[in-house]
# Entry
Amino acid sequence: MEVIMFWILAVIIVASAIATVFSKNIIYSAFSLLFSFLGVAGIYAMLSADFLAVTQIMVYVGGILTLLLFGVMLTNRITTMSLKTDVFNFVPGLIIAAVMLASLLYVIWVTGTWAKHSPAVWDTTVESIGTLTITQYLLPFEMVAIILLVAVVGASYIARKDKQNIKS
Amino acid sequence: MESLTLNHFLTLSAILFSLGVFGVMTRRNAVVVLMGIELMLNSANINLIAFSRFNGNLDGQMLAIFVIVLAAAEAAVALAIILNMYSNLKTVNLDEVDQLKE
# Structure
């Protein structure tokens, strides 16, 4: 049952990622990316990372994908220009991606002993993640909070329209 | 049918990463290049969580949370830059953006 679920999710993820990368229409790319993100959230749930599965759906599907769609809408004149974009450098890109995939798969399948310990099955990870966040990972947590604040303030400053009025 | 091993997840993540690399290298539109970067970050997260599960501790999941937060920050800043690029140069095709100033 678990194996069948894995293969269904893997087919969904890879097919949507291929559609994202190869589609000529940017809107189709964005919506294929949606299914890819949802499939990855399912993979997280299979790996007993329930908190991260929900976080994936909330942050990626609810936040980043919406942001990307706004980016598509705001940077394309929908009335005058079609939303098409072409694939260029096809052969070099394909060669580099294929070589990278082959070397990664070679390393993965030649190295037999990745997992040192026995696999863990957690009932829920929320409590443990909360404890780790405020004990062992407190400093990175605070740093990442400041980085997020600075990035959002900087992004809203960069993207604003009336920059000249503010300077003068 | 055999049970799931770590290599299943690592293989899936390798395929996803290569597709992301392909997208970054071959697309002209900056927004689609950003989508390729998000695919690569997702594949890294699959790796981290699979290792966390198969090694029996939660450190990988904590790292994956930080990756997700940084991906959100990166997407916000990158889209701000793309919007600025569009308002200044009237294009988002990366091969046409070859000037340092207007």
In short: Chain B has one domain: 6-89. The helical segments of chain B are 6-26, 30-55, 59-89.
